[in-house]
Design goal:
Layout lengths: L5 E11 L2 E11 L6 E11 L10 E6 L9 E5 L1
Parallel strand pairs: 3-5
Antiparallel strand pairs: 1-2, 1-4, 2-3, 4-5
């Protein structure tokens, strides 16, 4: 069985019920110039705990589709 993807990010919005928006920042090297570039991506993640606030560091894990945009769930905060 394949491992599920796990990412770390920061909560950027908690205004929805049972859903938070997590901003994940990744760094990679430019293929031609070699400069380190950071990119941001937002993920919608499911959570049962309403105790998450904006700015909290969380770990999210890939899961089955839960709605139109939600494919991740919060595993730890």
């Amino acid at each position: 069985m394949q491992q599920r993807k796990v990412l770390e990010g920061v909560v950027s919005s908690n205004k929805m019920k049972n859903t938070v928006v997590v901003k994940v920042t990744t760094t990679k090297r430019h293929p031609k110039y070699g400069k380190v570039i950071s990119t941001n991506k937002k993920f919608y993640a499911h959570t049962d705990a309403d105790t998450l606030n904006v700015g909290d560091k969380v770990t999210i894990e890939e899961t089955r589709p839960l709605s139109k945009l939600k494919r991740w769930r919060v595993t730890s905060n």
